[in-house]
UniProtKB/TrEMBL annotation, chain A:
Name of protein: DDB1- and CUL4-associated factor 13
Main location: nucleus
Keywords: Nucleus, Repeat, Ribonucleoprotein, Ribosome biogenesis, rRNA processing, Ubl conjugation pathway, WD repeat
Statement: the UniProt record of this protein carries the keyword Repeat: yes
UniProt cross-references to PANTHER family, sorted A to Z: DDB1- AND CUL4-ASSOCIATED FACTOR 13, U3 SMALL NUCLEOLAR RNA U3 SNORNA ASSOCIATED PROTEIN
């Protein structure tokens, strides 16, 4: 008996070499695959839904502080290390992979106002309410050695912030004035003042490292050039700016977190109006940090949430909150662009995914391809109402939700009032003021 | 103000003497006042008055102490100009000069400094503008921007810097030099260098592959030998022994021819062996085994056979020795040649069917086999020996060949009588087709095929239905009737290097087999080709048999021609766009098939769907839709208005004509020319919920947006590579890598020449738009498919696609297939 079997010619499916692509017995004639738009639309819809299903951004919380977390710093060389300072003067160093505190230092009496790591990652600086600047080693002390700062500088006034130069052994503190320090000296190299006020934050530009930005409590943002040891320009906003952050990929752009619930992205060459006003928070924005790719930034707010904004968009793409998270005081985006850390009033540091629905861990090539395809589909069909509706849906706590609603009403009322005023006055006497210009009071040269 | 020069003082001395002391005092006062203006103290030099004879009381200088005063000098006329003239001039000059401005206030000064600093700093920062724009527009950014690759400096470079200094080192180096050992770069001896140069990488690779192959083959044969050793079959071993013996004989023949002396020596050796064998009394039926056989021989046929063999051997050994004439053996071998040789030589369809690339492989394997297995048999003999194991197919083949030989004896009788051999032939043919992928023989096949059809022209009436019939076996059974002589013959002749006789060419026809008919398309093609060839054949018939060569040439051409014809049978678009009646699928084979097997099936189908006329239903539905779409005339006729009304009364025709308002004709329906489609042009609110109502931001025209929607990105519609390109993410980050802020080095790394851009030079910015991707998409992907894709975008297909999806989004299209 002869048994007949189905047989295929190996030439049709066997590759010549291992490096060849797998042969796909497939006809790509578009006539044979109709309804491509409709089918891709369905795929996009599914991808969007799945994205929302898998959006679980919260990873863990690092607890151990005994008071609110006031400031944080990233380790410049190690992704798994992060430093945090609390309101009781305690500094903790955390290991993110283990999610454990690896070292605790009682650094100051009173608040730890600011901290920064040296660019080489061997030491870090803290400033506190006790008018001191302390430099600490990054490694924990040997057995039997005491936990002591490498240097301590006693100042005359309280320092409210500190930042280290990105390349040189120079750091800047702020308080009553901006001081530029050499690491080797106990007195500042130079002090930069422009009027008398308390300056809340100071930041070095990571690209053009001689540039320095600061924000003071008299509502202004001042830029300095440490080469000429002179201030450059001052822009006064409607309300106080709490902190600012330079874009790590665009030398001239920085974003300021303001008390008026908004963030302003400025081009330092054109300070007359911000490039973009980012509005979504419903309370004062306390901290801001850029993603290392410079495409997005994360902001922490007094409204107990953190939001992620694209640099070129006026509204946030993501909002993170948990029931227990109180006013978020400080936020950092990790250097590998994957995670976000936020420290809040209720003594916890929380670790979030920067991309809420991202799958962590190693991806198989097929998974990666599918992910890319889904991403592309979502991007392609993002304007379609159903997809947008799903993609934009976020759960918010009631308080924030109500406040948003309230503010929408207020904004609408204000708009209506302006409209009415314009309607009942001489044409041209009530000019249209664009949103970007509204918040700028003056630019001082 | 400048101090008074002594000359002027001298000039003024005359006048002063006249004006007296009062004037002098005033003058001094004036001078003081003037000097006060300048803010500088007047120098005391001119005023210094020392007691000296040269200085007079009246401030008259007299040069030369002893000189006398001349009266005429005193009588000189009074200077018309006042000495104050110069002073006045000075005064005027001073007045003309504006006062130096006050220095700026501290605040102001700082502001100036700030402004200047701001301008320079923003210019400095502005260098990044181009880089920033480029990064924003970039289709893909990979972070970290600088991928630092750890480089290992070669040892040679490290050691090259080092020099021998101490005497010991120098001595060692001297030794090394003497022995031509490498000291510095590169660390190779001259021999090594030579070998490196001698063998290129390619060659080395090839050699390695060869070695690997040889090793594999060796292990394979070792395994085989081991297996063979363990075989218990007596028959097998007997056969093996026999073959070995034959082999030895043959070798001896060779030796005898080439080297008679050696052959003699060998003969002696053999003689020795034989004598030993004879002495051993192994064959005398005295052994244990032989005795047991003798008992068994009564019942067991096999045992009896073994006994007989033994006896024969004994006899042979006991015979008087003389050198055996080798004729018998040779004859045998020759016979075997004729039977067994053709199979590997090429006419065997199994061998034929193999791809040409694989062909040399078995031979390559043969070499090592002989080397490794000590008693390996030669190819032909082995074939003969393994006859028992021949597959059924091969047995058939041989059978078939025998018949052929008979037939060649009487070629005239070939016409009609084909018994069961036909089956075998057809089978061979099919196998031929099934395995045939070697391109070399394809042309020949075609040539034969034409001849086959040439013959078949004579009986085309029989041929046709059988050709087309889908049943494999039927075709097989019928075909050999036209091509009675198998391919083996012709092949053999060719391989033998003989000129095939005229009738042998006809026999070549036999080797031709039709292509395998697997799908409906194949069947259709077959019919078409047949038609074409039929016409040609008539011509060829007239031309005679010498056209054979041309035929072969043409066959190749036809092969190329056939491909497009095959492809273009039913195009979906043609069906969709045009009238349904013009669908050009060749009806012939379909009909025939239905004739054979389809009648009852069709009956069944019609029975099953008796009351279900889908086509008519659809037509009706479409007509209804068309009717509904037509604008209705507005009837404004009011019965009873201006005339009598009531039951049974109709408004007058005049009134009706006047008040029945005809609407303007409706615009043409979009599905006017699409017979299978009903396109609804009404706005569908259910679909609208899924549609984009406003033009989204980056797009300027709705066509742009629609275009962007229309191009699919999925792997269903794109080749692998195009798909990868289309779905490449905008930002790629590597896990566990710290992304540092951008720096000038990164920029120079990522794009050569952008460093210059950083310096502020204008560079043409990279164009990046939605169009770019589309272009790359058209180009992307290897091979035909991508090309057809690229064509599809601007051409017809794009249009048809546009029709398929009228909106930017999925509008449900009502489409029915007939």
């Amino acid at each position: 008996m002869r048994v007949k079997v189905l047989s295929r010619n190996p030439d049709d499916y066997v590759r010549e070499t291992k490096l060849d692509l797998q042969r796909v017995p497939r006809n790509y004639d578009p006539a044979l695959h109709p309804f491509e738009v409709a089918r891709e639309y369905v795929r996009a819809l599914n991808a969007t839904k799945l994205e929302r299903v898998f959006a679980k951004p919260f990873l863990s919380s690092l607890d151990g502080h005994r008071d609110g977390v006031n400031c944080m710093a990233k380790h410049p060389k190690s992704l798994s290390t992060v430093l945090s300072g609390a309101c009781d003067g305690e500094v903790k160093i955390w290991n993110l992979t283990k999610r454990q505190c690896i070292r605790t230092i009682q650094a100051h009496e009173g608040f730890v106002r600011g901290m920064c790591a040296r660019f080489c990652g061997t030491s870090f600086f803290t400033v506190g309410d006790d008018k001191t600047i302390k430099q600490w080693k990054m490694e924990s002390p040997e057995y039997g050695e005491e936990e002591e700062p490498v240097h301590t500088i006693l100042g005359k006034t309280v320092y409210t912030g500190i930042d280290h130069h990105w390349k040189e052994p120079v750091f800047a503190t702020c308080g009553h004035q901006v001081d530029i320090w050499d690491e080797q000296r106990t007195s500042p190299k130079c002090s930069l003042t422009w009027g008398f006020d308390s300056i809340s934050s100071v930041k070095f530009n990571p690209i053009e490292t001689y540039l320095l930005g600061s924000c003071a409590s008299d509502r202004n943002i001042v830029l300095y050039d440490i080469r000429k040891s002179t201030p450059l320009k001052k822009v006064i906003l409607n309300m106080r700016t709490n902190t600012l952050c330079w874009n790590p990929m665009e030398a001239f752009n920085f974003t300021a977190a303001n008390e008026d619930y908004n963030l302003y992205t400025f081009d330092m060459r054109f300070l007359e109006s911000p490039v973009m006003v980012h509005m979504d928070h419903v309370s004062a924005v306390l901290d801001v940090d850029y993603s290392p790719t410079g495409k997005e930034f994360v902001s922490a707010s007094f409204d107990k949430s953190i939001r992620i904004f694209p640099v070129d968009k006026g509204h946030s793409r993501e909002v993170y909150h948990t029931k227990r998270m109180q006013h978020v005081i400080t936020v950092k985006w990790t250097s590998d662009n994957k995670y976000i850390l936020c420290g809040s009033d209720e003594m916890n540091i929380r670790l979030w995914k920067a991309n809420a629905s991202e799958k962590l861990g190693v991806l198989a090539p097929r998974e990666k391809a599918a992910m890319n395809y889904n991403q592309k589909l979502k991007e392609k069909f993002q304007f379609h109402p159903q997809i947008r509706r799903i993609a934009q849906h976020r759960h918010l706590p009631k308080s924030i939700y109500c406040q948003i609603k309230e503010q929408r009403i207020m904004r609408e009322a204000r708009r209506r009032k302006e409209l009415n005023r314009r309607k009942h006055s001489k044409p041209g006497s009530v000019p249209f003021v664009p949103e970007r210009k509204k918040h700028i009071v003056a630019v001082v040269k | 103000m400048a101090e008074e020069d002594p000359a002027a003082a001298a000039a003024g001395s005359g006048s002063e003497s006249e004006e007296g002391e009062d004037g002098e005092r005033r003058h001094r006062q004036l001078l003081e006042a003037i000097s006060a203006l300048s803010g500088r103290k007047r120098r005391k030099l001119a005023e210094r008055s020392e007691a000296s004879g040269q200085v007079s009381e009246f401030n008259v200088t007299c040069k030369g102490a002893g000189e006398k005063l001349v009266l005429s000098e005193l009588l000189q006329p009074i200077h018309p100009k006042s000495t104050l003239g110069s002073v006045r001039k000075e005064l005027a000059r001073v007045k003309r000069k504006a006062a130096v401005e006050l220095p700026l206030s501290k605040e102001e000064a700082k502001r100036v400094v700030r402004e200047a600093a701001y301008v320079t700093t923003s210019k400095d920062v502005g260098k990044w503008q181009q880089v920033v724009l480029q990064n924003r527009r970039a289709e893909q950014l990979v972070f970290p921007l600088r991928q630092d690759i750890a480089t290992v400096t070669p040892l040679e470079r490290v050691t090259s810097a080092w020099k021998a200094r101490t005497p010991l080192e120098q001595e060692i180096f001297g030794l090394l030099h003497k022995t031509q050992q490498p000291v510095t770069d590169p660390l190779l001896t001259p021999e090594e260098m030579a070998s490196v140069q001698a063998m290129s990488l390619e060659e080395a690779r090839r050699r390695r592959a060869e070695l690997q192959k040889a090793r594999a083959v060796q292990s394979y044969y070792e395994a085989k030998a081991r297996r063979a050793k363990r075989i218990k079959s007596k028959k097998y071993h007997r056969v093996l022994k026999k073959s070995r013996r034959r082999q030895a004989l043959k070798e001896f023949e060779q030796l005898h021819k080439s080297d008679p002396a050696a052959a003699l020596a060998r003969l002696e050796e053999l003689e020795q062996l034989r004598m030993q064998e004879r002495m051993s009394l192994k064959h005398q039926n005295k052994g244990k085994w032989a005795k047991s056989r003798a008992i068994m021989a009564k019942y067991d046929l096999e045992a009896r056979k073994a006994m007989q063999e033994q006896l024969a051997r004994n006899k042979e050994l006991m015979q008087k020795v003389r050198v055996e004439p080798p004729e018998e053996e040779l004859c045998e071998v020759l016979e075997e040649d004729t039977t067994a040789l053709p199979m590997p030589s090429g006419a065997n369809p199994w061998m034929l069917g193999r791809p040409s690339g694989l062909a040399p492989e078995p031979e390559a394997q043969e070499g090592p086999r002989d080397d490794i297995v000590p008693g390996a048999v030669e190819n032909k003999d082995k074939m003969e020996e393994e006859e028992e194991e021949l597959s059924e197919e091969e047995a058939l083949l041989q059978d078939f060949e025998q018949k052929r030989r008979e037939r060649t004896g009487s070629p005239e009788g070939q016409g009609r009588d084909h018994g069961e051999e036909l089956k075998a032939q057809s089978w061979v043919g099919w196998e031929c087709w099934g395995l045939d992928k070697g391109r070399g023989i394809w042309g020949q096949f075609l040539a034969d095929f034409t001849q086959l059809s040439l013959l078949s022209a004579l009986w085309s009436d029989h041929f046709y239905p059988q050709q087309v019939g889908a049943d494999e076996t039927e075709i097989g059974a019928e075909q050999p009737r036209d091509s009675p002589v198998p391919p083996v013959c012709a092949e053999e002749l060719v391989s033998a290097g003989l000129e095939p006789p005229p009738q042998a060419q006809e026999q070549l026809l036999l080797s031709e087999q039709p292509r395998r008919v697997r799908t409906m398309e194949d069947v259709e093609n077959l019919a078409k080709d047949e038609l074409v060839e039929e016409q040609e054949k008539l011509v060829v018939l007239r031309a005679g048999k010498q056209a054979q060569q041309q035929e072969e040439g043409r066959a190749g051409d036809r092969h190329t021609k056939k491909a497009p014809a095959k492809r273009k049978m039913i195009s979906l678009e043609a069906v969709l766009d045009g009238k349904p009646q013009e669908m050009d699928c060749p009806s012939l084979p379909v009909v025939l098939e239905e004739e054979e097997g389809g009648i009852e099936q069709r009956g069944m189908i019609t029975e099953a769907f008796a009351g279900d006329d889908v086509v008519a239903d659809f037509r009706r539905e479409k007509r209804k839709a068309e009717e509904a779409g037509k604008p209705q005339p507005v009837n404004l006729v009011l019965p009873g208005w201006g005339e009598w009304g009531g039951t049974g009364l109709k408004p007058s025709a005049r009134k009706v004509k006047r008040f029945l308002i005809k609407p303007p004709p409706a615009p043409q329906r979009k599905d006017q020319h699409l017979p299978h489609v009903i396109m609804s042009e009404k706005r569908n609110i259910h679909a609208a919920a899924h549609q984009v109502s406003e033009l989204p931001f980056p797009f300027e025209r709705h066509q742009q947006f629609e275009q962007s929607m229309r191009t699919p990105v999925g792997p269903t519609w794109n080749t692998q590579r195009a798909f990868q390109k289309l779905t490449a993410p905008r930002v790629i980050t590597r896990t566990g890598h710290i992304i540092q802020p951008i720096s000038a080095e990164d920029v120079s790394d990522t794009a050569p020449g952008s460093e210059a851009r950083l310096e502020g030079e204008a560079m043409p910015s990279r164009k990046a738009g939605p169009g770019k991707k589309a272009v790359s998409r058209g180009k992307a992907g290897p091979g035909k498919k991508a090309v057809s894709r690229g064509k599809a975008v601007p051409g017809q297909k794009a249009v048809s696609r546009g029709k398929a999806v009228p909106g930017a989004k999925a509008q449900p299209r009502r489409c029915r297939a007939q």
